[in-house]
Amino acid sequence: MRIVCQITRFMRMQYGYGFGRDLSELLKQDIKRGRILTLLSIQIRAVMTHGSLKIALIYEFREAYKALGYSDVDCNRFEVGEAANHIAAVLKKLGHEVVLIPDIHSLVKRLANGEGSTWDLAFNTTEGLHGLAREGQVPALLEAYQIPFTFSDAATMALCLDKGRTKMVLEHFNVPTAPFAVIHFNHTHGKAQVSLDEILSMVRMSRHSETLLTQYPLFAKPLAEGSSKGIGTSNKIKSIESLCEVVNSLRKSSPSSLGVLIEKYLPGREFTVGILGTGEDAWVVGVDEIVWCSNGSTKSNPETVEYTTEKSKSVEDWAGEADEIKVGRDDQEADLACRTALRAWTVLRCRDGGRVDIRMDGSSGSPVAHVMESIISLGF
Protein backbone atom coordinates (compact mmCIF):
# COMPACT_ATOMS: atom_id res chain seq x y z
CA MET A 1 0.00 0.00 0.00
CA ARG A 2 1.43 3.35 -1.07
CA ILE A 3 0.48 6.33 1.06
CA VAL A 4 0.77 9.96 0.06
CA CYS A 5 0.41 12.42 2.96
CA GLN A 6 -0.03 16.16 2.53
CA ILE A 7 0.83 18.00 5.67
CA THR A 8 0.15 21.34 7.27
CA ARG A 9 3.55 22.91 6.72
CA PHE A 10 3.54 22.30 3.00
CA MET A 11 -0.03 23.35 2.36
CA ARG A 12 0.72 26.60 4.19
CA MET A 13 3.60 27.17 1.78
CA GLN A 14 1.62 26.27 -1.32
CA TYR A 15 -1.43 28.34 -0.46
CA GLY A 16 0.22 31.23 1.32
CA TYR A 17 -0.87 30.62 4.89
CA GLY A 18 0.95 32.98 7.24
CA PHE A 19 3.51 31.46 9.58
CA GLY A 20 1.86 33.10 12.59
CA ARG A 21 -1.49 31.35 12.14
CA ASP A 22 -2.38 28.57 14.52
CA LEU A 23 -2.37 25.02 13.15
CA SER A 24 -5.54 24.03 14.98
CA GLU A 25 -7.39 27.11 13.75
CA LEU A 26 -6.31 26.41 10.16
CA LEU A 27 -7.69 22.90 10.38
CA LYS A 28 -10.96 24.11 11.90
CA GLN A 29 -11.45 26.74 9.20
CA ASP A 30 -10.69 24.36 6.35
CA ILE A 31 -13.03 21.72 7.75
CA LYS A 32 -15.85 24.27 8.06
CA ARG A 33 -15.25 25.51 4.52
CA GLY A 34 -15.42 21.99 3.13
CA ARG A 35 -12.10 22.42 1.32
CA ILE A 36 -11.12 18.90 2.28
CA LEU A 37 -9.42 17.60 -0.84
CA THR A 38 -7.46 20.70 -1.80
CA LEU A 39 -6.66 23.03 1.07
CA LEU A 40 -6.88 20.65 4.01
CA SER A 41 -3.76 19.80 5.88
CA ILE A 42 -3.96 16.07 5.26
CA GLN A 43 -4.95 14.09 2.21
CA ILE A 44 -4.53 10.33 2.16
CA ARG A 45 -4.76 8.17 -0.91
CA ALA A 46 -4.66 4.44 -0.29
CA VAL A 47 -4.39 1.88 -3.07
CA MET A 48 -6.87 -0.60 -1.64
CA THR A 49 -9.98 -2.46 -2.75
CA HIS A 50 -12.14 -0.57 -0.24
CA GLY A 51 -12.33 3.17 0.33
CA SER A 52 -12.67 3.36 4.10
CA LEU A 53 -9.70 2.68 6.37
CA LYS A 54 -9.37 2.11 10.09
CA ILE A 55 -6.56 4.51 11.00
CA ALA A 56 -4.69 4.64 14.31
CA LEU A 57 -3.73 8.28 14.87
CA ILE A 58 -0.66 8.15 17.11
CA TYR A 59 0.31 11.45 18.68
CA GLU A 60 1.77 12.94 21.86
CA PHE A 61 -0.74 14.70 24.07
CA ARG A 62 0.87 16.75 26.82
CA GLU A 63 -1.81 15.99 29.41
CA ALA A 64 -1.59 12.25 28.75
CA TYR A 65 2.15 12.28 29.40
CA LYS A 66 1.80 14.49 32.47
CA ALA A 67 -0.71 11.99 33.88
CA LEU A 68 1.96 9.32 33.42
CA GLY A 69 4.39 11.36 35.55
CA TYR A 70 6.40 13.16 32.88
CA SER A 71 7.61 16.67 33.69
CA ASP A 72 6.65 19.91 31.98
CA VAL A 73 10.17 20.04 30.54
CA ASP A 74 9.70 16.58 28.98
CA CYS A 75 6.34 17.57 27.52
CA ASN A 76 7.39 20.91 26.05
CA ARG A 77 8.58 19.27 22.83
CA PHE A 78 5.07 18.03 22.00
CA GLU A 79 3.61 20.39 19.39
CA VAL A 80 1.41 18.26 17.15
CA GLY A 81 -0.66 16.66 19.91
CA GLU A 82 -2.84 19.73 20.42
CA ALA A 83 -4.12 19.42 16.84
CA ALA A 84 -4.91 15.70 16.98
CA ASN A 85 -8.67 16.19 17.22
CA HIS A 86 -8.63 18.34 14.10
CA ILE A 87 -6.46 15.87 12.20
CA ALA A 88 -8.91 13.15 13.23
CA ALA A 89 -11.81 15.28 12.00
CA VAL A 90 -10.18 15.59 8.59
CA LEU A 91 -9.64 11.85 8.32
CA LYS A 92 -13.25 11.21 9.32
CA LYS A 93 -14.44 13.71 6.70
CA LEU A 94 -12.54 11.64 4.17
CA GLY A 95 -14.58 8.63 5.25
CA HIS A 96 -12.12 6.86 7.55
CA GLU A 97 -12.53 5.45 11.05
CA VAL A 98 -10.02 6.94 13.51
CA VAL A 99 -8.57 5.43 16.69
CA LEU A 100 -6.88 8.04 18.91
CA ILE A 101 -3.66 6.92 20.64
CA PRO A 102 -2.22 9.80 22.72
CA ASP A 103 1.06 8.28 23.96
CA ILE A 104 3.53 5.48 23.32
CA HIS A 105 2.47 3.58 26.45
CA SER A 106 -1.09 3.30 25.13
CA LEU A 107 0.30 2.14 21.79
CA VAL A 108 2.36 -0.62 23.41
CA LYS A 109 -0.66 -1.88 25.37
CA ARG A 110 -2.90 -1.90 22.30
CA LEU A 111 -0.30 -3.74 20.24
CA ALA A 112 0.25 -6.28 23.03
CA ASN A 113 -3.46 -7.09 23.24
CA GLY A 114 -3.68 -7.64 19.48
CA GLU A 115 -5.65 -4.52 18.57
CA GLY A 116 -3.08 -3.53 15.95
CA SER A 117 -4.22 -6.35 13.67
CA THR A 118 -7.48 -4.44 13.12
CA TRP A 119 -5.78 -1.28 11.82
CA ASP A 120 -5.33 -0.67 8.12
CA LEU A 121 -2.91 2.19 8.71
CA ALA A 122 -1.16 4.11 11.48
CA PHE A 123 -0.83 7.88 11.09
CA ASN A 124 2.34 8.67 13.03
CA THR A 125 3.02 12.19 14.30
CA THR A 126 5.31 11.31 17.23
CA GLU A 127 8.77 12.63 18.11
CA GLY A 128 9.63 10.48 21.13
CA LEU A 129 11.25 11.50 24.40
CA HIS A 130 14.41 9.59 25.20
CA GLY A 131 17.46 8.35 23.32
CA LEU A 132 19.18 9.14 20.03
CA ALA A 133 16.66 6.95 18.18
CA ARG A 134 13.57 8.41 19.90
CA GLU A 135 11.88 9.52 16.69
CA GLY A 136 12.20 5.97 15.38
CA GLN A 137 10.63 4.26 18.39
CA VAL A 138 7.00 4.30 17.24
CA PRO A 139 7.92 3.42 13.62
CA ALA A 140 10.00 0.50 14.94
CA LEU A 141 7.05 -0.84 16.93
CA LEU A 142 4.79 -0.56 13.90
CA GLU A 143 7.36 -2.27 11.69
CA ALA A 144 7.64 -5.14 14.20
CA TYR A 145 3.87 -5.65 14.04
CA GLN A 146 3.82 -5.16 10.24
CA ILE A 147 1.38 -2.25 10.39
CA PRO A 148 1.65 0.23 7.48
CA PHE A 149 2.30 3.77 8.68
CA THR A 150 2.84 7.29 7.39
CA PHE A 151 6.14 9.13 7.09
CA SER A 152 9.67 7.72 7.18
CA ASP A 153 10.69 4.36 8.58
CA ALA A 154 12.53 3.77 11.85
CA ALA A 155 16.00 3.73 10.27
CA THR A 156 15.57 7.06 8.50
CA MET A 157 13.93 8.68 11.52
CA ALA A 158 16.85 7.67 13.75
CA LEU A 159 19.42 8.75 11.16
CA CYS A 160 17.97 12.20 10.58
CA LEU A 161 17.71 13.04 14.29
CA ASP A 162 21.50 12.60 14.55
CA LYS A 163 22.76 15.61 12.61
CA GLY A 164 26.33 14.32 12.43
CA ARG A 165 25.41 10.98 10.85
CA THR A 166 22.97 12.71 8.53
CA LYS A 167 25.77 14.93 7.24
CA MET A 168 28.05 11.92 6.80
CA VAL A 169 25.46 10.29 4.53
CA LEU A 170 24.94 13.52 2.60
CA GLU A 171 28.70 13.86 2.07
CA HIS A 172 28.91 10.27 0.83
CA PHE A 173 26.37 11.09 -1.88
CA ASN A 174 27.99 14.47 -2.70
CA VAL A 175 25.05 16.49 -1.42
CA PRO A 176 26.42 19.86 -0.24
CA THR A 177 26.50 20.30 3.52
CA ALA A 178 28.59 22.68 5.59
CA PRO A 179 32.04 21.44 6.76
CA PHE A 180 31.56 19.91 10.19
CA ALA A 181 32.94 18.00 13.15
CA VAL A 182 31.18 16.04 15.90
CA ILE A 183 32.04 16.47 19.57
CA HIS A 184 30.83 13.39 21.48
CA PHE A 185 30.26 13.43 25.24
CA ASN A 186 30.05 9.67 25.84
CA HIS A 187 33.56 9.63 27.35
CA THR A 188 33.12 12.74 29.49
CA HIS A 189 30.66 11.54 32.14
CA GLY A 190 31.58 12.81 35.58
CA LYS A 191 33.64 15.69 34.22
CA ALA A 192 32.53 19.20 35.04
CA GLN A 193 34.02 20.54 31.80
CA VAL A 194 35.30 19.22 28.49
CA SER A 195 38.76 20.69 27.96
CA LEU A 196 39.81 22.62 24.88
CA ASP A 197 42.42 19.94 24.14
CA GLU A 198 39.71 17.25 24.13
CA ILE A 199 37.52 19.33 21.84
CA LEU A 200 40.36 20.06 19.42
CA SER A 201 41.29 16.39 19.39
CA MET A 202 37.77 15.50 18.20
CA VAL A 203 37.69 18.34 15.68
CA ARG A 204 40.96 17.05 14.17
CA MET A 205 39.28 13.69 13.50
CA SER A 206 37.13 15.43 10.91
CA ARG A 207 38.23 15.65 7.29
CA HIS A 208 37.26 19.33 7.56
CA SER A 209 39.51 20.10 10.52
CA GLU A 210 41.74 22.56 8.67
CA THR A 211 38.74 24.57 7.46
CA LEU A 212 37.09 24.55 10.87
CA LEU A 213 40.19 25.62 12.77
CA THR A 214 41.23 28.39 10.38
CA GLN A 215 38.00 29.86 8.97
CA TYR A 216 35.79 31.58 11.53
CA PRO A 217 32.98 32.08 12.41
CA LEU A 218 31.68 28.61 13.20
CA PHE A 219 28.29 27.54 14.47
CA ALA A 220 27.56 24.97 17.19
CA LYS A 221 24.29 23.17 17.89
CA PRO A 222 23.13 20.10 19.85
CA LEU A 223 23.85 16.92 17.93
CA ALA A 224 20.37 15.43 18.28
CA GLU A 225 17.71 17.98 19.13
CA GLY A 226 14.80 19.56 17.31
CA SER A 227 12.61 22.66 17.64
CA SER A 228 15.77 24.79 17.96
CA LYS A 229 16.51 23.56 21.47
CA GLY A 230 19.90 24.82 22.59
CA ILE A 231 20.10 27.47 19.85
CA GLY A 232 20.88 31.10 20.66
CA THR A 233 23.17 34.00 19.86
CA SER A 234 26.03 32.44 21.82
CA ASN A 235 26.21 29.48 19.42
CA LYS A 236 28.10 31.54 16.87
CA ILE A 237 31.81 30.90 17.50
CA LYS A 238 34.02 33.78 16.39
CA SER A 239 37.39 32.52 17.63
CA ILE A 240 39.10 29.45 19.02
CA GLU A 241 39.01 31.07 22.46
CA SER A 242 35.20 30.82 22.58
CA LEU A 243 35.03 27.25 21.25
CA CYS A 244 35.41 25.57 24.64
CA GLU A 245 32.88 27.85 26.33
CA VAL A 246 30.19 27.27 23.69
CA VAL A 247 30.62 23.48 23.64
CA ASN A 248 30.39 23.22 27.42
CA SER A 249 27.39 25.51 27.51
CA LEU A 250 25.56 23.25 25.05
CA ARG A 251 26.64 20.18 26.99
CA LYS A 252 24.94 21.64 30.06
CA SER A 253 21.78 22.93 28.35
CA SER A 254 21.15 19.85 26.15
CA PRO A 255 22.37 16.80 28.11
CA SER A 256 20.12 14.38 26.20
CA SER A 257 21.81 15.28 22.92
CA LEU A 258 25.05 13.49 23.93
CA GLY A 259 27.13 15.65 21.64
CA VAL A 260 27.61 18.89 19.73
CA LEU A 261 27.81 19.51 16.01
CA ILE A 262 30.26 22.21 14.92
CA GLU A 263 29.86 23.62 11.42
CA LYS A 264 31.25 26.36 9.26
CA TYR A 265 28.89 29.32 9.59
CA LEU A 266 26.97 29.97 6.37
CA PRO A 267 26.22 33.66 5.75
CA GLY A 268 23.77 33.37 2.86
CA ARG A 269 20.01 33.19 2.37
CA GLU A 270 17.95 30.64 4.29
CA PHE A 271 15.19 28.55 2.70
CA THR A 272 12.83 25.90 3.95
CA VAL A 273 11.65 23.47 1.28
CA GLY A 274 8.47 21.39 1.61
CA ILE A 275 8.57 17.97 -0.05
CA LEU A 276 5.93 15.32 -0.67
CA GLY A 277 6.36 11.78 -1.92
CA THR A 278 8.88 8.97 -1.82
CA GLY A 279 11.88 8.08 -3.98
CA GLU A 280 11.53 9.04 -7.64
CA ASP A 281 7.96 10.21 -6.97
CA ALA A 282 9.07 12.91 -4.50
CA TRP A 283 8.46 16.51 -5.52
CA VAL A 284 8.83 20.01 -4.11
CA VAL A 285 5.48 21.44 -3.04
CA GLY A 286 6.78 24.87 -2.04
CA VAL A 287 9.72 26.91 -0.83
CA ASP A 288 9.85 29.78 1.65
CA GLU A 289 12.69 32.14 2.45
CA ILE A 290 13.38 33.31 5.99
CA VAL A 291 13.84 37.05 5.47
CA TRP A 292 15.21 39.07 8.36
CA CYS A 293 14.16 42.64 9.07
CA SER A 294 16.64 45.47 9.46
CA ASN A 295 15.91 49.10 10.40
CA GLY A 296 12.19 48.62 9.97
CA SER A 297 12.43 47.25 6.43
CA THR A 298 12.19 43.65 5.38
CA LYS A 299 15.25 42.49 3.51
CA SER A 300 17.72 39.66 3.53
CA ASN A 301 20.70 40.95 5.48
CA PRO A 302 23.19 38.24 6.52
CA GLU A 303 24.90 40.59 8.96
CA THR A 304 21.73 40.78 11.09
CA VAL A 305 21.46 37.00 11.35
CA GLU A 306 23.50 36.19 14.42
CA TYR A 307 22.11 32.69 14.66
CA THR A 308 20.22 30.35 12.41
CA THR A 309 16.83 28.73 12.94
CA GLU A 310 15.94 29.84 16.47
CA LYS A 311 13.49 32.53 15.45
CA SER A 312 12.48 30.79 12.26
CA LYS A 313 11.64 27.41 13.77
CA SER A 314 10.81 27.80 17.44
CA VAL A 315 8.21 30.54 17.64
CA GLU A 316 5.11 31.67 15.78
CA ASP A 317 5.40 35.36 16.64
CA TRP A 318 8.57 36.89 15.26
CA ALA A 319 7.77 40.34 16.70
CA GLY A 320 8.81 42.01 13.46
CA GLU A 321 12.25 40.40 13.41
CA ALA A 322 11.69 38.16 10.40
CA ASP A 323 9.15 37.07 7.81
CA GLU A 324 8.64 33.81 5.99
CA ILE A 325 8.19 34.69 2.33
CA LYS A 326 6.97 32.36 -0.39
CA VAL A 327 9.55 32.27 -3.21
CA GLY A 328 9.08 31.20 -6.82
CA ARG A 329 11.30 28.71 -8.63
CA ASP A 330 12.28 31.48 -11.06
CA ASP A 331 14.57 32.73 -8.28
CA GLN A 332 17.86 30.97 -9.13
CA GLU A 333 18.99 30.50 -5.53
CA ALA A 334 15.55 29.24 -4.48
CA ASP A 335 15.58 26.78 -7.38
CA LEU A 336 19.05 25.57 -6.37
CA ALA A 337 17.79 25.16 -2.80
CA CYS A 338 14.85 23.08 -4.05
CA ARG A 339 17.03 20.82 -6.18
CA THR A 340 19.50 20.30 -3.33
CA ALA A 341 16.69 19.60 -0.86
CA LEU A 342 15.09 17.05 -3.15
CA ARG A 343 18.43 15.31 -3.65
CA ALA A 344 18.94 15.15 0.12
CA TRP A 345 15.41 13.81 0.60
CA THR A 346 16.08 11.00 -1.84
CA VAL A 347 19.48 9.88 -0.57
CA LEU A 348 18.26 9.90 3.05
CA ARG A 349 15.34 7.69 1.94
CA CYS A 350 12.74 10.00 3.41
CA ARG A 351 9.12 9.08 2.83
CA ASP A 352 5.71 10.71 2.32
CA GLY A 353 6.27 14.29 3.50
CA GLY A 354 8.54 16.64 5.39
CA ARG A 355 10.82 19.58 4.87
CA VAL A 356 14.49 20.26 4.28
CA ASP A 357 16.12 23.45 5.54
CA ILE A 358 18.76 24.99 3.30
CA ARG A 359 21.32 27.74 3.91
CA MET A 360 23.22 29.35 1.05
CA ASP A 361 26.94 30.04 1.10
CA GLY A 362 28.16 32.70 -1.29
CA SER A 363 31.62 33.05 0.21
CA SER A 364 33.16 31.02 -2.61
CA GLY A 365 32.01 33.52 -5.23
CA SER A 366 28.92 31.63 -6.37
CA PRO A 367 26.02 30.47 -4.18
CA VAL A 368 26.14 26.88 -2.93
CA ALA A 369 23.08 25.40 -1.23
CA HIS A 370 23.96 23.51 1.95
CA VAL A 371 21.54 21.19 3.74
CA MET A 372 21.06 22.28 7.35
CA GLU A 373 18.36 19.92 8.56
CA SER A 374 15.78 17.40 7.38
CA ILE A 375 12.44 17.17 9.18
CA ILE A 376 10.65 14.04 8.08
CA SER A 377 7.34 14.00 9.88
CA LEU A 378 4.44 16.30 10.73
CA GLY A 379 6.88 19.05 11.66
CA PHE A 380 6.94 22.82 11.65
Keywords:
four-stranded antiparallel β-sheet, D-amino Acid Aminotransferase, Chain A, domain 1, ATP binding, cell wall biogenesis/degradation, single chain, 380 residues, 3 domains, D-alanine--D-alanine ligase, alpha+beta, D-alanine-D-alanine ligase activity, ATP-binding
Describe the structure in your own words:
InterPro entries: ATP-grasp, ATP_grasp_subdomain_1, Dala_Dala_lig_C, PreATP-grasp_dom_sf. Pfam families: Dala_Dala_lig_C. Belongs to the D-alanine--D-alanine ligase family. Keywords: ATP-binding, Cell wall biogenesis/degradation, Ligase, Nucleotide-binding. This is D-alanine--D-alanine ligase. With 380 residues, the protein is of the alpha+beta class. The chain folds into three domains: 147 residues, no CATH class; 86 residues, Dna Ligase, domain 1, CATH 3.30.1490; 109 residues, 2-Layer Sandwich (D-amino Acid Aminotransferase, Chain A, domain 1). Helices cover 32% and strands 21% of the residues. It has 14 helices and 15 strands. The strands form four sheets. Strands 10, 11, 12, 13, 14 and 15 form a six-stranded antiparallel β-sheet that branches. A four-stranded antiparallel β-sheet has the order 6-9-7-8, sandwiched between helices. Helix 7 packs antiparallel against helix 8. The protein is globular. The N terminus is likely disordered.
